[in-house]
Amino acid sequence: MRNNLDLSFTALIVVDFQNDFCPGGTLAVSEGDQIYPVVQDLVNEFEDRHRPIVFTRDYHPSNHISFVNRGGPWPPHCVQGTYGFEFFPKLRIPDNAAHFFKGYLKDADAYSGFEGCLATNGTITGITLESWLHSQNVHQVYITGLATDYCVKATAIDATRAGFDTIVITNGVKGVNVSPHDSERALNDMKQAGACLLEWPARHG
Ligand SMILES: [Zn+2]
């Protein structure tokens, strides 16, 4: 079935697959690590087809506005220069992948990858995700990563608003679920915004 998917105008967006959002991290998504096989399989497939692959990451200063010690909702997470900011260790990142950092200003939070900017060799540029995707002639995005009810949702909804045909990979996302069913509701919100939901037929092992 996957061979029939036309990905000629598609980019993959992997949202925030970072240590702090995985079990053992400071803002762990329960079973967040279990999306790994699907995420890696998607990365491999897009790489095989020479399609653009985007990784977004929270890149917070240690005094970030979203942290509890500044009156925000979250424990400190994904702080610049820490292990928690790094990718889930098993994840293999293609050399030519595009990296977008968000939430790097101390007084502004950002859930959506579309609020991030391209980082080349760790240096943040002024290039937004939307403009970068257009520069790659991308019309469609596949979205996977963490967490369903926050950054995945915000990224998917922004993608639809920016006019991209938006596909959310249901078996490649996991939610925080502060309230039960938050993930389910988030997937519904994404659908309402015009995104499609797809279970990726991953090859395991
Ligand atoms: Zn954050």
Automatic annotation (TrEMBL):
- Molecular functions per Gene Ontology: metal ion binding; nicotinamidase activity
Start and end residues of each Isochorismatase-like domain: 10-199
Looking up CDD domains in the UniProt record yields:
nicotinamidase
Q: EC no.?
A: 3.5.1.19
GO BP: pyridine nucleotide biosynthetic process
- Highest taxon of the source? Bacteria
Coiled-coil ranges per the record? Answer: none
Q: Which InterPro entries match?
A: Isochorismatase-like_dom, Isochorismatase-like_sf, Isochorismatase_Nicotinamidase
Instruction: Fetch the Pfam families from UniProt.
Output: Isochorismatase
Pathway listed for it is: Cofactor biosynthesis; nicotinate biosynthesis; nicotinate from nicotinamide: step 1/1
Q: Which UniProt keywords apply?
A: Hydrolase, Metal-binding, Pyridine nucleotide biosynthesis
> Family, per the entry?
Belongs to the isochorismatase family.
Q: What is this protein called?
A: nicotinamidase
Per the UniProt record, the source organism is Sulfobacillus benefaciens
Recite the lineage of the species. Answer: Bacteria, Bacillati, Bacillota, Clostridia, Eubacteriales
